[in-house]
Write a structure and sequence with these properties.
Helix content is 38%, strand content 13%. The protein is of the alpha+beta class and 260 residues long. It folds into 2 domains: 79 residues, Phosphorylase Kinase, domain 1 (2-Layer Sandwich), CATH 3.30.200; 167 residues, Aminoglycoside 3'-phosphotransferase, Chain: A, domain 2, CATH 3.90.1200. A 5-stranded antiparallel beta sheet has the order 1-2-3-6-5. Helix 3 runs antiparallel to helix 6 and helix 6 crosses helix 8. It is globular.
């Protein structure tokens, strides 16, 4: 993904940043570092403000770290379409899917009592539409053959919904001697184990795990159904699949559908 335009001098001043911004690798290619601050475009103001408030008040825990949001000089969580947070050290590691799931479980336990935010009902992106399709809240599906057996395999899920992180594998950072860091949080209102299922199918797709990963986490409630919905979510967000993506997803779909 191409890097976004750098924050302007006006944005830097708004957050009290004094160093020349440099692009940060990874993520969506939109983050810039200025000294101890990370600056990113604020995609949706209600979501940004809500997320910043949650992360600001989240207690410290040995189970995970978070990048604490930094307010602008005027006290707001956004300024000129940008948001800021403290730089947090660590690197993603797709080979550590089990550790990512454990970090996600600790994070979701801390979020368990949060009410459903209103912005989730009006968010309209390829990912939000794919999420609603996975959970049978809309019917229109992309014309992708891999989706058909997954859609047919859906059954009711009993696990309760709560606020979760929908993209953990690439956004849990590891640093020796420190708890895992949760970054780039995009919230969804689904069972906590659905987030773990997304980690599992992402790791399998990238060949960073084998089928034993699914067995190790089969204790989670509604596990097979959450794996099915995780795959629908990932595949439907593409809206079309090229040959490379299809070759990556196809064996994972076969494995999940064969899971008892």
């Amino acid at each position: 993904m191409s890097q976004s335009l750098a924050p302007s001098a006006r944005v830097l001043t708004a957050f009290g940043a004094t160093e020349e911004p440099v692009p940060l690798p990874g993520g969506r290619g939109s983050a810039w570092r200025s000294g101890p601050l990370v600056l990113e475009p604020a995609e949706a103001a209600p979501e940004t403000v809500w997320r910043a408030g949650v992360l600001h008040h989240l207690p410290q825990t040995p189970g995970f770290r978070v990048a604490r949001p930094v307010p602008a000089v005027d006290g707001g969580w956004t300024a000129h379409g940008w948001e800021a947070s403290r730089l947090i050290v660590g690197s993603a590691d797709p080979d550590r899917a089990d550790d990512v799931i454990r970090a996600g479980e600790a994070f979701h336990a801390a979020l368990r009592d949060l009410p459903r935010p209103r912005f989730l009902g009006i968010r309209d992106t390829p990912w939000s539409r794919a999420d609603r399709l996975a959970w049978q809240e809309i019917d229109a599906a992309p014309d992708v053959p891999l989706l058909k057996p997954l859609l047919a395999a859906r059954r009711p899920v009993d696990a309760p919904a709560q606020i979760v992180h929908g993209d953990l594998l690439a956004h849990v950072l590891f640093e020796p001697g420190l708890p895992p860091a949760i970054t780039d949080w995009r919230p969804y209102w689904r069972p906590a184990a659905w987030a773990s299922a997304i980690v599992a199918v992402d790791a399998l797709r990238r060949s960073a795990a084998d089928s034993a990963l699914l067995e190790r986490w089969s204790r989670l409630p509604d596990w097979r159904q959450l794996l099915v919905r995780a795959l629908i979510f990932r595949i439907a967000a593409h809206e079309s699949l090229d040959e490379t993506a299809e070759s990556e997803y196809s064996p994972v779909v076969d494995l999940v559908l064969a899971t008892g």
